Amino acid sequence: MLNNGGPRYKCSKLERKMNTDVIWCVLVLLFLCCAGAVGCKLWYDHYSPLLYKVTPFITYADKPAYEGLLIFWTYIIVLQVMIPVSLYVTIEMTKLLQVYHIHQDVEMYDPVTNTRTECRALNITEELGQINYLFSDKTGTLTENKMVFRRCTVGGVDYDHPPGPPAEPSPDLPPIVTPITKVSPNRRMLQHMQDNNDAQHTQKVREFLLMLAVCNTVVVSQPHVDAMQLSGSQSGGHFPTDRSADRPARSNGTLRSNDKYARLTESRSTTPSPPPSTTSPLRIRLPRFPFGGRDDTSSEPSTSADCQLARFEAESPDELALAEAALAYGYELRSRAPDEVEVGVRGEVVRYKVLRVQQFDSNRKCMSVAMRLPTGQVILYVKGADSAVLGALTPMRAGSAEAAAYERTRALLSEYARAGLRTLVMAKRTMQPALWEEWLAGHARASEIGEGREKRIRESLARLESALSLVGATGVEDRLQEAVPRT
Q1: Backbone angles phi and psi of 269, in degrees to 5
Q2: Cα–Cα distance between 422 and 416 in angstroms, integer?
Q3: Where in the sequence does UniProt note compositional bias of the Basic and acidic residues kind (predicted)?
Q4: Which helix (H) or strand (E) holds 366?
Q5: Which residues are paired to 472 by β-bridges?
Q6: What's residue 469's pLDDT?
Q7: CATH code, 143-226+256-480
Q8: Which listed residue (21, 45, 62, 137) is catalytic?
């Protein structure tokens, strides 16, 4: 309802000052006119009706009050020059000239987008020269709002990701589609993913990448592609085979949700959709990385593993950057449903049962995803601010490897923050099914309508997102826009 109203009128200091002065001029005018009208009436009241025969050029009025009213409006006409109406016209003409010079300012022209300054308010231009302090948010205003995965730490080991080459446009991509940001994989992290000498750290690295892929709300979408070009001919591009055709159906014989969405899209399309054996041109080729298996050492990427979806839809650029980083290491988020997530891991398709997704909020400063493993255990992945996640970790014994990794991670988080990176901490918690069911029942009771419901829900989520084990942390860069000074 608030957005249905018109825009708020903005009034400058000069305009407010001028309005105040005009009001004073009107009050003075009314005072003078009233004084003249009262004086006229009093003069007529004391004027002798016999003097008109003696005094020339003076007429006698038998209604002094009526004559006073006429004199009041006469003075209004005579003294109305006190109201500076022409001042408004002069100021408006001056503002129009100011707006013209602002539009023609060469220093405020952006050659990249071929746009010039656009002045939307004509009545506050004079305020620009009186600004002492300018307050602005950072994301999207001073920065490009394009998050790029730069650094991460797993088990206290730092992995740097320097800027890679810009994404090259593919001939299969429409000109309006921008390829996803390229993330240059860290060679040492690739080695640690297949290092058999330190199996514990290798497991942490792989679990960290799995968290990047699943602990988010990113949705994989397959956009509609016109098979018919504007000229009327069929597009000749050859697209890789759709991997959804090779996926097995569910055991209950029902159709997959992706097939339902695809059929729904085809039924609503007004132009022919590509057949099921083809995929959207919004795919890029990524190299396969060896993971230690015999079949994975081949340098030639396979058709089913190197064709990655290039279109992710995320609620925030941060989640998109993390999903792209996982994709660069071969952990591909293939599909997401309310109760299931499908991930491509080391050339294999793994499906996880999603039990609960708790969205991020400003009070908890984190989000969590609960999934059921094939072993039956429930694992909770938590991602959030360091102030929230680090305080929920399980107490560690002094001098242990976990304590050393914790201290190293905190130091790296401070280093990431000094470098201007947006930091997130990743943690997990493994729960037995009985413990999960117990918490689920307690949370259902806490969610019942009643007094203190919000407080009970916060306490219930705090019990769930506790006793965590540290997995790692990330540093995402939000680059400053051009010409923005660094502090």
Answers
A1: -75, 145
A2: 8
A3: 240-249, 257-266
A4: strand 366-372
A5: 154, 426
A6: 94
A7: 3.40.1110.10
A8: 137
Residue in the structure block whose two tokens are 């058709």: 303
CA dist 405 and 178 (Å) reads 39
Q: Are the C-beta atoms of residues 267 and 289 closer than 8 Å to each other? A: no
- The Cα-based distances of 102 to 126, 217, 315 in angstroms read 11, 43, 36
Question: Quick one: pLDDT band at residue 127, thresholds 50, 70, 90?
Answer: confident
Confidence of residue 177 (pLDDT cuts 50, 70, 90): very low
Quote the pLDDT of residue 6: 65
pTM: 0.62
In this prediction, residues 268-272 reach a mean pLDDT of 37
Q: Is 21 a catalytic residue?
A: no
| Side-chain half-sphere CA neighbours of 396 within 13 A | 17
Q: How far apart are CA 203 and CA 155, in angstroms?
A: 10
Does 97 score more than 80 pLDDT? yes
Q: Are 378 and 436 in contact (CB under 8 A)?
A: yes
**Residue type, position 57, single letter:** F
Nearest to 147 by CA among 177, 181, 186: 181
Rounded Cα distance, 306 and 344, in Å? 11
Which residue type does 198 have? D
Per residue, what are the HEC states of 115-161?
ECCCCCCCCCHHHHHHCCCCCCCCCCCCEEEEEEEEEEEECCEEEEC
Q: Distance between CA 153 and CA 386 in Å, rounded?
A: 13
176 conformational bin, left if phi > 0, alpha if psi -120 to 50, beta if neither: alpha
C-alpha torsion angle, residues 48, 52, 55, 56 (rounded to 10): 150
Domain spans of the chain?
10-130, 143-226+256-480
- Name residue, tokens 């080991």: 157
Alpha helices in 329-473 (DSSP H): 386-389, 401-418, 433-446, 453-464
